[in-house]
Design goal:
The protein is α+β, with helices and mostly antiparallel strands. It has 1 helix and 10 strands. The protein starts with a strand and ends with a helix.
């Protein structure tokens, strides 16, 4: 998950994942709290563990994950408006954002799926080889012709 600051203030983001026991999935974050620098992006990894489905025909299974983000700004900050001013507040400014994430669980990969992924990975290499072969078919005759012509000129002198 990424969060982007669109202010010129340092801030903190706290992610809260409500309990998902009703849907049967487990969620966790690498880091629940992130520091945000002005006009910068921070990220954390959301891990989702879904229960096993009994049959392959039962897939895909969709889940909804609720995420609450509390963003807080410092009590004291300095602004540069032609001249530096320091603002001090006795309150912490907070923004709360509720989001939902849809997670779809697909069936486990079988041997055919792994073979297909390998073929897809090799496909660009095959395309490059095809291009090099085609270029060689066009260029090699010119090289041979130039070499033969140069050789015949050397024999005549």
């Amino acid at each position: 998950m990424k969060i982007q600051s669109r202010t010129n203030l340092d801030s903190n983001a706290l992610f809260v994942l409500p309990s998902n026991k009703t849907s049967g999935i487990q969620t966790s974050l690498n880091s629940r709290e992130l520091s945000l620098l002005p006009e910068d992006t921070s990220s954390t990894t959301l891990k989702v563990k879904a229960p096993a489905v009994q049959t392959r025909q039962s897939y895909p299974v969709s889940y909804t994950v609720s995420i609450v983000t509390n963003i807080t700004f410092p009590q004291t900050f300095t602004a540069d408006i032609g001249q530096k001013y320091t603002f001090d507040s006795n309150k912490i400014a907070t923004i709360t954002k509720n989001s939902t994430l849809s997670v779809t669980v697909l069936p486990p990969l079988g041997i055919f799926d792994y073979l297909q992924m390998t073929a897809n990975w090799l496909s660009p290499i095959d395309s490059i080889w095809t291009f090099i072969t085609a270029a060689g078919v066009i260029i090699v005759p010119f090289i041979i012709r130039g070499y033969s012509k140069k050789k015949s000129e050397n024999h005549q002198t």
